[in-house]
Amino acid sequence: VTDTPARFANRGMSLEQDINETNKHYNATGKAVIHKKPTPVQIVNVDYPKRSAAKITEAYFKQPSTTDYNGIYRGKYIDFEAKETKNKTSFPFGNIHPHQVDHMKQVLHHGGVSFFIIRFSIVDETYLYDASHFIWWYTEQTQRKSIPKQHIEENGHRLAIKYAPRVDFLDIVDHVYYS
Amino acid sequence: VTDTPARFANRGMSLEQDINETNKHYNATGKAVIHKKPTPVQIVNVDYPKRSAAKITEAYFKQPSTTDYNGIYRGKYIDFEAKETKNKTSFPFGNIHPHQVDHMKQVLHHGGVSFFIIRFSIVDETYLYDASHFIWWYTEQTQRKSIPKQHIEENGHRLAIKYAPRVDFLDIVDHVYYS
Ligand SMILES: [Mg+2]
Ligand SMILES: [Mg+2]
């Protein structure tokens, strides 16, 4: 549970905001239906004051068992995780949990589209990176606990940052998964 | 926000538990990947005590903008809402929000599978009821704020309660959406 405070602290970070804005745009224009899942919380105590909203007074962060985002696009199930890193040369496995990786494997197995959106925040570069590449690095080698940025540059797809939608990842998804 | 305390109170109810067990079974056997979304919560304050887990000390329930469950089955996006009612003769619209209904419309529009699982708890009958029927009652008539149980009996599909999986709704989904 040690990474969950960080997870909460991350909530205001710009990649997530960019993607949320982008999904709002997609949902509003009828292009796709994609939502961020709520942060999983274990609720322990709730007060029910008269005449006002129920107040949660004790709760704890839980480890997510799936990824950040899922939904439907062009008839396909779409599922992805967004991660920002300050690392300049590699994408560390850091707070990616084995059950999240299992989840991605299962999504691929069932014919869904599964990927990461990775932002290297120091250089402000954002990539779409297919889950199958990630899974290889995570499970098929034991030498390193990260993926070289160069591999992501070569095998991922750079996302341009625009005004609206902010990160038009479906434009890339069209090329990668529907052509 | 007035229905959210009830929503929290409902968390221990048996339909949701039955479906969660069923999804665990589906996930474990590789049949489908379906998860319940976490209850959406607006976090206002978090304490970070030394040497122990971050504690949320103030938070509020938010209205869900989507449905309870989604995932992938046989390559299709699947999305549904589970509701229990104590009403004996009809299924009241009660705490179903317009944006949840919009969400279901959009899922259908994009080619996804969308339905309700409705339990009439007094008589202990559980039905799978396609979202298109629900949407008709919710948006195309103004006479009533509920759906007659008889319509659900005739146009829905009764779900048997078994040992494992508890409510084998994919068995019905096979017949209704894949044949
Ligand atoms: Mg993330
Ligand atoms: Mg429900």
From TrEMBL, chains A, B:
One GO BP: chromosome segregation
InterPro entries noted in UniProt: Resolv_RecU, Restrct_endonuc-II-like, tRNA_endonuc-like_dom_sf
GO molecular function, one term: magnesium ion binding
Function: Endonuclease that resolves Holliday junction intermediates in genetic recombination. Cleaves mobile four-strand junctions by introducing symmetrical nicks in paired strands. Promotes annealing of linear ssDNA with homologous dsDNA. Required for DNA repair, homologous recombination and chromosome segregation.
Cofactor(s) this protein cannot do without: Mg(2+)
EC number: 3.1.21.10
Organism this protein belongs to: Salibacterium salarium
Name of this chain's protein: Holliday junction resolvase RecU
Binding site residues for Mg(2+): 66, 68, 81, 100
Cofactor, how bound (note): Binds 1 Mg(2+) ion per subunit.
Pfam family, one: RecU
One GO term describing the cellular component: cytoplasm
Entry's family note: Belongs to the RecU family.
Reactions catalysed according to its record: Endonucleolytic cleavage at a junction such as a reciprocal single-stranded crossover between two homologous DNA duplexes (Holliday junction)
Keywords, sorted A to Z: Cytoplasm, DNA damage, DNA recombination, DNA repair, Endonuclease, Hydrolase, Magnesium, Metal-binding, Nuclease
Subcellular location as annotated: Cytoplasm
